[in-house]
Amino acid sequence: MVPTLFQSIYRHPLFTMGEMEQIVSLHTKTTVKKGGFLLEKGDTANAYYLVESGLVRFFVHDYEGNEITTQFICENEIVNEVSSLFQRLPSEQNIQAVTDVTVWKIDFNNFQYLYHHYESVREWGREWMSAQLFLSQLRHVEMITQTASSRYLKLMEQKPQIIQQAPLKQIASFLGIADTSLSRIRREILAP
Fold first, then answer.
1. Nearest to 139 by CA among 88, 71, 190, 73
2. Is residue 111 part of a domain?
3. CB 79 within 8 A of CB 103
4. Which domain holds residue 75?
5. Domain Cyclic nucleotide-binding spans what residues (predicted)?
6. Using the 8-state DSSP alphabet, how is residue 45 labeled?
7. d(CA 168, CA 170)
């Protein structure tokens, strides 16, 4: 039986039931406590993860040493530091559990096996990477073209679990604003 998480993430018409079962068999379920790291800056990624429950974030330190959250990963999404994993480079980012998380890990060598043996995995991977590139470009444009209030409202609508589970400081840095600005935006939204 293929768990719903895998059916959701590895959704592609080319996958056969046998291939899906093979994919599931190469993942290992694990937990990471709140504040724990899936990857630290300077380490090379050797796996990617499917998030079954909880919230994960990517973050860097700016030139003044401040933590800047660059991405949140929610349930039914993939945690993947793509440049580190596929180019075998030390990561420039940290990947940290915002809450206790349950993830399914697939190591680099097992993914490479799947990628080289199944056309369906190659097609799925190509489509996933294209979608991630689109989302990344969209975020860059929205950071310039939308107000902080608009970005916050969109985040509330599309990813309410981030608003519910992440600390204010992490959300503010993700939106590119100060904590005090986010507090003001929240007050304005809640005002009658």
1. 71
2. yes
3. yes
4. 4-117
5. 5-114
6. P
7. 6
